[in-house]
Structure formats: C-alpha cells, structure tokens
Specification:
The complex is a heterodimer of chains A (237) and B (125). Chain A has 237 residues and is α+β, with helices and mostly antiparallel strands. Helices cover 49% and strands 18% of the residues of chain A. Chain A contains 8 helices and 7 strands; from the N terminus they run ααβαββαββαααββα. Chain A has a 5-stranded mixed β-sheet. In chain A, strands 1-3 form a two-stranded antiparallel ribbon. In chain A, helix 1 packs antiparallel against helix 2. With 125 residues, chain B is α/β, with parallel strands linked by helices. Helices cover 46% and strands 18% of the residues of chain B. In chain B, strands 2-1-3-4-5 form a 5-stranded parallel β-sheet, with helices on both faces. Chain B is globular, with a radius of gyration of 13 Å. The chains are: A alpha+beta (237), B alpha/beta (125). At the A-B interface, helix 1 and helix 2 of A face helix 1 of B.
C-alpha cells in the first residue's frame, strides 16, 4: 500500500470515530432499562448498536493495517505468561457473552509459558480466532482452546466443530478482504480483515499461523510462537 | 458529581450531557480548551472529561495547564479521545489523567469509569 493511501486510511479511520461515538452512545441509551422502549423498538436500537460495533471493528482493523503497511505499527513487547493471557481472554469472552459460557473449553492454560510479545496485540489475535470459531460453528458445539509445547515453540490452537473451510478458501484465507464463497459462512458478519491482521501480528512476533479443516467437521487454527529463552527458569520459579 | 465536559463537537457534548444526567450527575459544557481554567474556577467541577483534538488550545495543553495549577491539579481528568495509540494513553496518564476512554466508547462503560474516578477522589480527599 502506498504511503499516501495508508495515511488516508488512517485519517478516515480516525474521522469515523466521533460520529460512531454518537451513534453507539444513543443506541446504548435507547437500549438501557430507563428508556422503557417496547420490545420491537428496543430490537431496532440493538441492531443499530450491533452494526455500529461492526463498523468500529472494521475501522480499527483498517487503521491497524494501514499502520502496519506504512511501518508505523508499534508493538510493546514484554516477557509475560501467555497461558494466563489466553485464560483471561477466554474468561472475558464468557463474561461479555453469557451464551458462550458453556461452549468454551481451555486446556493447558494452568502451566505458565513465557514469551516475549505484545500482550494487547496478541490478545487481538486470540479474541479474533475464538470469536470466529464460535461464530462459524453450531450453538451446541464446544470450541476448544489448547496450549502446549511442540519442540522449541509454543502452540496455541483453537478448534471448532463448525462448517469447515474448503481447500480453495484456505489458500486465500489470510489475504485482506477475503470472504468465503460458502453461502453459510457469508451469512455471518465479517470484514475479511481479522485473519489478515492476525497473520501480520503473529509474523511480527516471529510466529506462524496455520489452519487445518474438513468440510462439515470443523477447523483448527494453530499459532506457533517462539518461547522466551528463560521459559524453563520461569516455570521452575 | 459536578462534571465539566470539554469537547469541541456539539453532538458529543449533547450525548455526554444525556448520559451523565441520567446517571444523576450535574454537567457543565465547554466547547474548547481556551478558557478551561476559567471554566474550572467558575464551576468547581468534581471531575473533568477532556477531548484531546480541539482547535486552538487542545486537550494536551489544557491537561498540562490543569495539572500545573495547584488549585486544579487534584481534579480527576478522564480523557475521551478518538486517538487510540498506546503512546497517547501512556502520555496522558503520565501527565496526570486518571483514565483514558477511547472513542467510540460504550455509554455504560463511560459512566462506570466516571463513577470509579469520582469514588477514588472522594476516598483520597
């Protein structure tokens, strides 16, 4: 992306935020208990809220991508226990989406695994993968997040039992603005930027992101990240 | 609480007035950072919600002035801005803001943070 285009995208993203604040703010108010709206009107306000939130995600993703492309994407890396971060993210998703409470299973997060990385950026990646898994699989199926060590790398996988992804789609899954040709998948809202952004963030950490999938059986996204040199000591401590 | 809202966008001010009044706060509006010290002296707010990108005197300068003045330095300031770089968060907190709520914020989240900042002030007073 050219620098002027990146700059333009960053400015557009910024300019969207003030009107979005007004839209979301009033929709929040309309939906609050004190408004005493009838069910139908409250549902309309809910739709405004949801659409504006999607737009917010799109704007944030576009802003991030333009920053990555122009080399202005900053990350603040520290040594931290990523298992604890993943467990926190899973808890956060359960709290803000009670309907997901029983579907999310987290395995291996009780062992500390130290990496050198940006907590908030990697958090974006895990949140994206987990919410995708929930979104693209049946409401009665579990999503399993597993953390384990494979060689010198830490592997974090997110497995669903959803609709699966075709081989043709997998080859383009991590490219910007890609949306699946599967009509069932297209029914779900998405910007086509989340996985592209996830890949950029993971690669910026010297890691890899891969997917394996079977149509009708589900998909597993795996992230490989280098463990910090002192991981063993920190586990022993 | 009495809250001073400083934002150059009239729609944002109107929204903040609606949200904060519903949460039983008294709200005073200021459209720029130029006379922020005068506004504070005249209205003696318990808390200030401050935008950053404003014409003439922006939020950074206004925050600096408020924190440099012994009569206003203890009033908690919450930044409400469309800037959402971590450098901005860090800079604002270093300069003395108590919280940073990036736009677009969620109304109930904002009210909660206002309540927390107010409670912390009451406790330390």
């Amino acid at each position: 992306m050219s620098e002027s285009k990146s700059q333009f995208l960053a400015e557009v993203a910024h300019e969207f935020k003030t009107p979005l604040t007004v839209i979301i703010g009033y929709a929040n108010m309309l939906r609050s208990d004190e408004s005493h709206l009838d069910e139908e009107l409250s549902a309309y306000a809910g739709s405004i809220e949801k659409s504006a939130s999607q737009l917010t995600t799109l704007i944030r993703d576009l802003g991030d991508i333009s920053k990555i492309d122009s080399g202005q994407f900053t990350s603040t890396k520290t040594l931290h226990d990523i298992s604890a971060d993943v467990a926190d993210i899973v808890e956060g998703i359960k709290i803000s989406n009670l309907e997901y409470r029983d579907r999310l299973k987290c395995e291996g997060s009780d062992t500390a695994n130290v990496i050198f990385g940006d907590t908030s950026r990697l958090g974006q990646v895990f949140t994206n993968l987990i919410t995708n898994a929930l979104k693209y699989s049946p409401v009665d199926q579990d999503v399993v997040i597993a953390i384990d060590i494979s060689g010198e790398k830490l592997k974090i996988s997110v497995a669903d039992q959803g609709m699966g992804i075709s081989e043709a789609d997998i080859s383009r899954l991590f490219t910007p603005y890609f949306r699946s040709s599967n009509p069932e998948a297209l029914e779900r809202e998405g910007t086509g930027l989340g996985l592209y952004l996830s890949k950029l963030i993971v690669e910026e950490h010297g890691g890899t992101i891969t997917v394996s999938s079977q149509i009708g059986e589900g998909s597993t996204f795996s992230i490989g990240l280098p463990l910090a040199a002192n991981n063993d000591q920190s586990k022993a401590a | 609480m009495r809250i001073l809202v400083v934002d150059d966008n009239p729609d944002i001010r109107m929204l903040l007035v609606s949200i904060l009044q519903r949460a039983q706060h008294e709200v005073i509006e200021a459209a720029d950072g130029v006379a922020v010290q005068q506004w504070v002296a005249d209205t003696e707010p318990d808390l200030i919600i401050l935008d950053l990108m404003m014409p003439e005197v922006d939020g950074w300068e206004a925050l600096e002035m408020l924190k440099a003045d012994p009569s206003t330095k203890d009033i908690p300031v919450i930044i409400s801005s469309a800037l959402d770089e971590r450098e901005d968060y860090a800079k604002a907190l270093e300069m003395g803001a108590v919280d940073y709520v990036p736009k677009p914020w969620d109304a109930s989240d904002l009210v909660q943070r206002v309540g927390l900042a107010g409670a912390a002030r009451a406790k330390s007073a």
